[in-house]
Each structure stands twice: as C-alpha cells, then as structure tokens.
Fold each of these.
Amino acid sequence: MRVAILIFDRITALDAIGPYEVLSRLPDAEVVFVSEHAGMRRSDRGSLGLHADRSIDEVTAADILVVPGGPGAREDVVKNPRVLEWVRDIDRGTTWTTSVCTGAIVLGAAGLLRGLDATTHWAHLERLRDYGANPVSRRVVEQGKIITAAGVSSGIDMALRLAQIVAGDRVAQSLQLWIEYDPAPPFDSGSPAKASAETIRLTRSMMTPR
Amino acid sequence: MRVAILIFDRITALDAIGPYEVLSRLPDAEVVFVSEHAGMRRSDRGSLGLHADRSIDEVTAADILVVPGGPGAREDVVKNPRVLEWVRDIDRGTTWTTSVCTGAIVLGAAGLLRGLDATTHWAHLERLRDYGANPVSRRVVEQGKIITAAGVSSGIDMALRLAQIVAGDRVAQSLQLWIEYDPAPPFDSGSPAKASAETIRLTRSMMTPR
C-alpha cells in the first residue's frame, strides 16, 4: 500500500509527520515524500529541512494521499497549477485522499471538496467556502474517500482513524500504543471552543507574521 | 533562546518534530537541528530524510537540548562516544535538558540520569536502570533541569509543559491552540495501562524487526 505525502516549502512539519508516524507503521505500507521537485524543502519555521525523495513527475499513483498544510500550502501550493493538477491526478486513483490543517485548502483549490463537508485549521475554516465546501468544526471529517483533519496535531488522530479503516481495530490500537499516543497536555485549550477569548486573541496575534 | 534538537539515522521522526512544532513557536526561539555530521539523516521507517543544518562541532551551547529516540538512539548513539560527550558538554550549559522516547537512554548513557526518576518508551523502561535511573511510568518526568518524556507522541505534551515553564501559561495555552492540540484518538489504547493484553502482544510483535 503506497502512501504519498506531499511536501513543499513553508510546510507545517507536524501536519506531515503525525500521519507519517502512524501510516508508515501499517503492515505493508510504503511511504514516499513527494514535492514539485525532489530535494530539500524548508518548514514554515525555517529551521527544519525535510527531504522529498521523489518529484511529482515520478509519483503517478498512490493508495493514500496526504496533503499537509502550512503557509506554503495556503499561499503557494494553492496557486501552483502543476501541483494542483498532480493532486487531482493522484486523487483519481487513490482509495483515500486526505488533508491535515490547511492542506484542505489545497484539496479545495484542486476542486476536490465541492459540495462536501470539510475541516481545516480553525483560523482558516471559513476559507473552505471559497471552494464550495461546507466548513465543519470537527477534528476529523470523513466524506466518502475524502478525509480532512483540523489543525496541525489532528493528523495523528486522522491517521489512527484511517489505520482503523484500512487495517482494523486491533492494528490501529497497536499503532496507538506503539507511538504511545496517550495525550496529557498541561491545559485544555486545544480548540477555540475550549480556549479562553484571551488565549484566542493571543494565538491570532502570535500567528500573524511580523 | 536556542533550542538544539539532536538527530541521527534511524530516528523516530515524531519524537523530534512534536517538540520542534511547539518550541519553534515560542517567542524568540531559535531551533537548530544538529547531528554528528551535518546533512541528511534517515528516519527509522527509512522513508523520511531530515536535514541537520549543523554538526555537533558547530553547536557548542544551547538553552534547551532535545534528544529524541528511535532504534538509532538506543542502538547507535548510545555507543557513540563523540555524540555522548557532546550531549554532556551541551548539558553543562543548558537551562533544560530533555528527551523523548528512547532519547532517555542516550541521556542515561551520557551519565545524566544517575539517581534520577526518568521515563522513556514503555517497551524500554527497564533499560533506564542500566544507567542508574529510576524508571517511572509517567508521560513527563521532571527532575530539576532534566525532563524525560514517554514514547514518541509524548514529546508534544513535554514541550507544552516546557513552554509553560519558560513562557508562562498564556503563551503555552496559545501554542496548544495554534497547533490545535485537542486530541481525539479513536481508541484509548495509548499506554500499556490502558491497552488490552492482546494489543500489547500485537504491538510488541509489530515492533520486532523482521
């Protein structure tokens, strides 16, 4: 089972690495990191280089497509007709087409979300309407073969759900134990429904590039 | 504030990227990925290349040190005197020295856990005794400036706790919201205390290299 993970400059790394860490442990999974051109891409924080082993020209099919987000997704990839065409082409042959965070905006720009419920990072949710999708505030949204996940860390939950679908409860539970995903954050402010108004304000200000 | 994240071949990528995603968003944080030699390292699943921008010779000080785990940590780095000496040297100047997963075994091999409570991936917990540490089944264990976290995904929780310590509740809560860390796994089998005996058996068998 081939899993293609699209990467690009200014990617939010955890969007990709969360699902990678789960899906790469599925029995018989083969994961490939793919980008418009093969080589190193830099994360949105600048300090991390992730390597794309293959260019989009070299990857013509996948069983699972994962499109992560980040400023590079919502500002650059959405305007890149070559990459959007690749996303559409790959989607034709996938069993599952997925996104994490603002990767959903890339799926939208590729025309794959029209008429569907979808989610993305809470701060960009309304933008899904631009692509004919119906924004939903849920951690993971399944619509046929299209699965969209909320912001950044939600890709871990999405991938465990996908593991459950493709390999069953026992394997998915084992993957959860393998990566010891027994979350215990020191606070409960991980969604705008739970965070204080003050936290939401500070987060928006921290998210704004200076 | 400089954060140095040690990487190496056969690293478990999420061990590093979880803390990176949180700590790199701290105001004034500068993150550097460092390895014995600068250049691309491959993850434990083989399919991902992570780039070390700096060699250990180029990084002589850090405020926060993060040592991730993986087979490369517990089998290779623990036997590499140059890297262990670097870990000891950096630790002398850090405000916080941290590990995720079997990165704790590297801290142990460097002699930094003697007499301390510490944690690591549940499947390797007892090995901490080899280094004079007292193994503790907790997600995050704080002992003075040494903070160890449990398996793989626990680095996210550890980093949020560290963010709370260094930047206060408001900033840490905002980082949690920024990365939308509102976990909702489809199961509750993320620790050996919660998983079924059958899941633990299957996980151990999946974790054994063929």
Amino acid sequence: MDTQPLYRQLASHYLHAIEAGTLAPGERMPSVRALMARHDVSLSTALQTCRHLENQGLLEARPRSGYFVRMPGRHALAAVEEPVPTVPDPAQYVGIHERVSAIIARGRQSPGAINLCGASGAPSLYPVEALKTAAMRALRNDPELFGAQAPPNGHPAFRSILAKRALAARINVHQDEIIVTYGCVEALNLALRAVAQPGDVIAVESPTFFGLLQILESLGMRALEIPTSPQTGISLEALELAVQTYDNIKAVVVVPNLQNPLGSIMPDANKENLVHWCEAQGIPLIEDDTYGALSNADTPLAALKAWDHSDNVIHCASINKVLAPGMRLGWIAAGKWHARVEMLKYAQSRPNEALAQITVADYMASPAFDRHVRRLRGNLREQRERMAEAVAAYFPVGTRLSVPAGGVCLWIELPGKLSSEALFNAALVEGIHIAPGVMFSNSRRFDHFLRVSCGMPWSRELDHAIRRLAAVVSRLLGA
Amino acid sequence: MDTQPLYRQLASHYLHAIEAGTLAPGERMPSVRALMARHDVSLSTALQTCRHLENQGLLEARPRSGYFVRMPGRHALAAVEEPVPTVPDPAQYVGIHERVSAIIARGRQSPGAINLCGASGAPSLYPVEALKTAAMRALRNDPELFGAQAPPNGHPAFRSILAKRALAARINVHQDEIIVTYGCVEALNLALRAVAQPGDVIAVESPTFFGLLQILESLGMRALEIPTSPQTGISLEALELAVQTYDNIKAVVVVPNLQNPLGSIMPDANKENLVHWCEAQGIPLIEDDTYGALSNADTPLAALKAWDHSDNVIHCASINKVLAPGMRLGWIAAGKWHARVEMLKYAQSRPNEALAQITVADYMASPAFDRHVRRLRGNLREQRERMAEAVAAYFPVGTRLSVPAGGVCLWIELPGKLSSEALFNAALVEGIHIAPGVMFSNSRRFDHFLRVSCGMPWSRELDHAIRRLAAVVSRLLGA
C-alpha cells in the first residue's frame, strides 16, 4: 500500500503521463472538477495535486483557464546571472550607430525574414481600427486641424489625460508640467540636452536600449555603463562606486520598469533609494518609463517620479509600446528643467502637430483604452511564455534566460560564450532576424546575449523559427 | 488752347478727380471702353491716359479687372535703406529666446488681439477640407497606419513627390537623398548639428528669422550677423569681409527666396556666386527655402541647391507656409552630410509618422495642388498690396517700407528711430499684436523696424487695426 498522501499519489500518476507524452506540452490538465469525479477525491486533494505539479514546474496556471502542461525544460532553465557590483569601466564616447543601423537595415533588406529584432507588439495587438475611427472624428470635428499651428507644449486634451493617467503610476503632475514630444526618443534627447553638454558623462544601465546609446553618440556625450541586474535593475552599489571613482557624472538615465533589454523591474525600495541618492548627490535623474503599463500586474508599475519631491527626476514616456507604435507620441515632465526643455523643444521641432494628440486623447478617455491595455498585457504574457518555453525546449543546454514579468522581449544568454553577432549572420541566412547583444552596450560585453522579440502572436511558424534558430546555435557551438 | 497731348489733358482731368477725392482710393477707374465713349477719344489715347496715371503712381492695374485708384501715399513711400557692406560685428552667443517667447506669449494671452505677429497665412487660405478628405482616404486605405513604425527617412510616396516638385526650383535630387523632418525647423537643427559644434560660428543674415536665432541659442552656437539687403538678400561683400576678418566660420545659413523678415529675393547671379564662393571656401551652405513657391512669379524661384555641383549645399524646406501650417512636415536634402543627418534624425526623433506624409503626397500629386498654390499666391499678393497701401495711407511721414515680390510679411522701418518694442507694448493695449524688430537680431539693431503679417484676408477690421496702429506710432513719435 502506498504510504504517500493521496495528492502525491495522484501527482505522480500525472507526472508519468506527462513524461510519457500522454499529456503533451501545452495541453490542458484535467480540471479540478474532472479530477474529483474521475478519482473520487475531495476538492482539497484535487487542488493540492495540481499545485504540487505546478511547484515541480510541470504545470502552469493560466488565469480563468486552468492548468496546462509546461513545455519541457523551461522549469530547468537557469536565469541570467546577476552582475557583480564593481567599479564600472571609465566613461567612453559612444560609437554604436553604424553597428546598430547595419543590423536593422540587414533585416529590412531580407523581406521574408521573421522579425525577432524589434521591441514593439505586432500591429494586430493594437486597436488600430478604433484609433482610425477617433482620427476620422477629429478630422470631422476640429476646424483648426492642418490650417493652424498646434497649441504650445502639446494639445490640452492630450496633456490632461496624460496627467490623469500618470496618477496610476503614482505620479502627480499638472498638465502644464507636461510637454508632448515626438516619442520617448525626442523626450530623452531634450532631457539630456537640458542637463548636459557634449563631452559630459552620463551613467546608463548596462546593457541598455540601443536608442539611448545612439542619442548619447549623436550628442557627443560619454556613456558610463553601470552593471544592471536582470531582476532588480541598475545596481545602486555600482552606481555609488562609480560616483566615488569618477566625480563628473552629469545625469543618470534609468528604465526602472521592464528595462530594455533585460526586462528587470526595480523594487520600490530601490526606486526610492535611487531617487533620494541622486537628489543628495545633485545628479539629475532621467527615467524612461515606456513599458511601465505592460507588466503582468493589474496596475501600472510605479515610476521613479513617484518618489521625487525636489523636481530632480525628469520623467520621459510614450504611447509607442502601449497604444500605437506608428504615432510617434511621447512626453516629458522635466521637473526643475521644465523651462529649458520647453525652449529646447520649441527650437528643435516646434509643438507636435495636433491630429495624433486629439486622436489618442479621445481614445484614452474611453473605457476601451483600459480594456485594450488589459488584453495587450494578457497577450504579451502569453507570447512571452510561449517564446520562453520554445527557447527552453529547443536551445542547447547551458542557455540562460530571464523571463520578465512584463514587456515585449526576452534576454537570452548563449552557452559557451557563443557570439551573438555570428549567430545574427547565420540566423539571417535562415530567414530569422534577431537583435544580437552587441546592440546593447558600447563594449562587446554582451556579445553572447541576444534579445528576442515576443511581440508577435504565437504561431507554428514562430515555433519553427525558434527551432531553426536553436539548431543554428547548436551548429555554431559544435563548429 | 491746351498744347498738351490729348492723353495728358485727360490724365490731369482725372488727377484732379483723384486729388479731390471724387475718385476715392481703391475705387475703380472708368474702363478704357468708357473713357473712349465718354471723351470721344481713340483706344490708344484712352490707354495712354491710364498708363500715364499708372506711371505717376496714381492708378494700379489689376489683372483682368482694370485700373484702380491707389491708396494715397503708397507711391511716395521710400524703400527700406540698403545696408552698407562693412565688416560685420564679431560673432556672439545668442540670447533671444526669452525675448521672443515673451512677445509671442503676450499675444496669446490677449485673446481678442489681431494677430499681425505670425508669418503664416490664415487657415482660410489653405485647402484644409481637401487635406482632411485625403487624410480620411489614407485612414481607410492604409492598413499599416498607427500600428507599425513609419518607413525610414520618410514615406516613399511623399519623398517621391518632393523630388518631382523640387525640379521646378531647379533642384535635381533623387528621393533617396531626401529625409523628411518635423518642419523646416527640425531640418535646420539637423543641418547645423551635422556641420558644427557648440561654440562654433555660424554666418546668418541680419535681420533674420527668429526661429534660426533660437536654434543657434539652443545649440550653443554663435551667430555672425551679415548685413542683408531688403532687395537682393545677403551681402556677398560683407560675407567676404567677414571671412577675411574672422577665419572660423563653420556654416552660412541663408533664406535665398523671400527672406524672412525682409522679403528679399537673391538674384540668380548672387545665388550662383554664393554657392561657388562657399564651395571654394570649404564652408557648408545651408539654405532655408520655405517661401520659394510664394513669389508673384508663375514658377517657383530657383533654390541655391540648383547651382550646387559638389553637394556642399544643404537644402531645407517645408510645406508649412505653402500647404498646411498645422502639419509640421519639412524635409532636408543634405548633400555630402546625408549619412550624418540620417543618423541625427534617427537619434533625435525617429522617422516621421506616416499619416501626414501620405495625406500630403496624395494632395500634392493632384492638379488641385497647383490650383491651390496659384490661388494662394494671388491672395497673398492682394493682401500684401492692401496692407502696404494701408501702411502708406495711415503711417506718419518718414515710414519706410519694402514691398516684397512674394511671401507673407512686410518689413517696416519706423520714422524717428522709434522703438518697435515700445510700439509693441502700446499696440497690444489697442488689441494689435505685432512682431517688433528686436525679434530678428541678436543685437537691438532693428528695434525701429517691425514685421507685419499679411496672412489674413483684407477686411474693414484689418484696415481699422492698421489705422489704430499708425495712430499709436504718431502718438509715440509726438511723446
């Protein structure tokens, strides 16, 4: 007679079924109700059985759908290693644009290639038709459109809804403190130009968004790369060491929520510490909060600006990833640099044209916006999970992966220090366009990493692509 | 018996009628046919009569409408004096933004004020409804809109029509040499950043567009102001002297056609000389050709780029004044700096969003665009003439005025070195918002000038405004 508790006996019954493939990866586990009927057990035993298998990494719960069999291997995949907080290398002038643009262009020049290089969702994830309807309404109703210059600093209706929405990220700004920009990219340009000059040293996360490195390059500023954790974001210890070693840091730029490419989320305590530390040091803190609304959590993640009581945080964000990758709408709340940013924006590109702002303000003020964001978060979560499972299933042993709690990307460490640039070339021959790690640092420190987009709805084609990509990795490792 | 030729006798008859006010300013002269019948003279005599009065500045011919009595005084108004080509003052860092933005803001804060401060046409002059229809068509037909990132360097359809249209300004560029920007303002930013660094010296026209001075201020570059003629544009002699005196000029920025605020048009020979001289000196030449299509001539004026055989001219332009002040669409053909501008644009604001480009490309490809430009040119001409006549009629003796052969503005020199800044304040009290001369130079050299917009269709209200403005001038002169 089996001496194990009943739920363990049932669990090992299903474990065998999973190992034998009777229950295939991705397949649905019999429901709790079915287990109760089939095995004549209590609700509590049926639930314990499923939870035990979930704890073993064999099942996963999907909200309102029940338990599903995990892809093999995913549970055994190690996370990307934490960096050791050491004194960062000295700041360097950035020379990355040529590399980055060649990588992007080569994907564009391979028309059939599957695009795993970007960091946006597929067009089908966005409410394009509803936005078009809102745009048509604006065209019909607004007599000033096209014929007259747009209002200064952005359209009042758009800035008003942005200020309201910011409350959810615990930011309290008045709409007059917001300046609308052409995407977060322009916001970051303005922020950096407001606080620093060519030649100045800017502390950035490492790895970081290549767009930020290109901005520093174009402005002639130097990047001081601070080790950054795939779990908790920028290392405050390393930043502290950097300031002790190099005393001329003119700004810190951080993506606190779902950092690109890592997907890390800074814990609230770290956010608070960083804000207060920068304030104490007299160093302007620039945050890029492009992804904050795309976490698995039901509420947006808090922005650094939430802890800012001295206007030392410059908050930059955009609707690019959340609502419309094709609209180029971002904004900046520049704290004590508001007047300077206002001047720079006016001199750089004048106030944004009005149509996109009116369109988005209309949509964001409706309940459809919240429904869209919920759906988008769910879709991205599903796509990330599927992608992570496929990587775990197909990539060779030694691959490491951090599955973030939100966002559009996975950050993968290749085994055997395999060069992702070599992988990029070989993968493109196979019709797969990836973002190699060399795009995310001015050094080659991350060459054995790659960023993979989870923006596309999961499909058999995508599954095959990851399988082929994994085969290329194995082949290169063997060579 | 009168020994004068018959036409002279008739002419003095009508001269008396005009002087006595029997024929009032703006009123129609009896037609040639009416003169023949009324005075029993030949066609030739009737025509000679009118032409003689026209030559005296008493009548003006309006195409297809006949002769009209001129406003009194206009014919007697002296042109703004030509500058003497001397060695320009040394380059200075620019500090103008605060002054300019305060002037613009004070107008905005006076809601009922008549806006004579801008340099765009009134919304009613632009084909807003046709553009909205084109935008609706784009929204219906383009599935990629909003959901996907816009094409690099600008939408191919828009760049293609720009390249075709540029042929009329004698520019031969391939669409791949064009990068779409957020207005000419962003194009000028990119051009300056491509060829110069903070601290560098840039030669500019004096007076010049305050937007250019604000750009230099925001980029930390120094302005070397070159005397510029209200008739023929920048003084090549003064530019030559500047280079001999100061050897570190990093770029020359010129508005060759309908310069803002002067309205000057560089003769083709000057354009050619300037292009070749800059090439020989190895100094990049940046042109802002925002107004070239708005001359009285039937064809667009030639751009500097027309004479450029070494890719040393950076051509910047926009649809802002010609088609849609509210759309923020400009472009740049950066010659040998194309790759650098491409990098800077990508890093600064990413490719422009697609909707505005598709909309405008659609409209510009239709015959409606040519019809619109013809109508706009005619309307602006009429508005400039009416404005000039009103200034001549109401402003005190000693006022000088250059009536340009195109564009949206008049440049007025006040008598007695009256401060236009004082006038600005007093006029605002009267509900009139002007652009004082201090907006157009880093020095106070042009404080006794003002720029007046001719963008609004002529009206009794506008006539009264100019009359009140003139009264303020007289009052300040008396004080």
